[in-house]
Fold this protein.
Amino acid sequence: MSSSSAGAETVGRVSPFIGRLSTGAWSPETFRQHLEETHAPLVERVSADEVNVTFVDEPGADQAVTLSVVVGPSIGRNTIEEEFTPVPGTSFHVLTLRMRSDLRFGYVFTRSGPAGEVEQVPDPFNPPPRFSEYSEARFSGSSVAVLPDAVPLPWLERAETLPAPAMESGVLASEVLGNERRIWVSMPPGDHSDESALPFVIHLDGTPNHSAPSVRDALVHAGLIRPCAVVLVDSLGLQRYTELLCDPAFSRMLVGELLPWLHDRYPLSRDPGEVALAGESYGGLCAGWTALHHPTTFGNAILQSPSCGYHPDLTWGTGARELLRRTPVPTLIADFLAAERAPIRVFHDVGELEGSNTHSRWLDQVLTAKGYDTRYREFAGGHDYAWWRGLFADALLWCFPPHAQ
């Protein structure tokens, strides 16, 4: 991938920070202290909406370094072709790119050794933030760059400072699917009697250290949402790529097995208007499709960068086979087009720099034309947890305001 395809281009001139280092005005120790105090990457504004961004690594001798960012044509990390340049007389390697000033993105450094060994590591001068470990390894453990004009995510920042919320876990055995999975439940702050009927959100692709409960706590403490429970549903490795793709059996498991399992154990509302189903990527696809087909269970769907271009018959050929390719209307969009308007609300976000935004815009047009109560937004980034984790707060604000709207 070229750097331009990642929303950036290589900068010819030397960053002033690196200039001080290379001319001896700064010692390596002074430069390292500057990095530790200001945090990386180093940013220099060059116009009203562009900045030069300098990434710095200390890879060790005989190692080449490239930058991999969660922006680009691949779902996951995309590699910038240009290698980092060693700074003579120092152990530092640097790469300066010109970028839009409103970006937020996950990234890692890819170090390549002389024997062909390859290692991906976070930025040593910008460690991964809290909540950076995900069920998807291709995203997990990334550093996050937040450029100066990026939309702030204050509730994620607040969540990162809070103590880990209490979490209970159990195992749900599914007769429908013939498997079992871990379920984690986090109740909201405060005391709740058995007679309570709390709103709740079920989040697919759950993990025990997911950010959703802490984001919920930050909003509840501020009085901006009603106290609500967060239910995190484990994914089962490669089965995720079957279960989350508009699979009727998986949706039946959620409705017919998970919901009764939860109601037997926790004081949760049975009003579909107080129940949300949330997911990212394939999880967002599943959340939207399941809510559409089970509106008397899920009155709210939270779709973060949903894979709404999916259709089981969609394949891509090469050469002459391309002349036989047919492009069906994607499943989620086709089902919303065919069905009468369901009594559900849809929160929907997508990255401006990800390939799925064309289908997300199409889905939003369909929902709007059919009169759905929907909230759609695009953010300045890619298919990236760096945005999803923070924008989840906006979804909770919309689903569970202090007083029902």
About this structure: Residues 3-146 form a domain with the Immunoglobulin-like fold (CATH 2.60.40.10). Residues 1-5 have pLDDT under 50 and may be disordered.
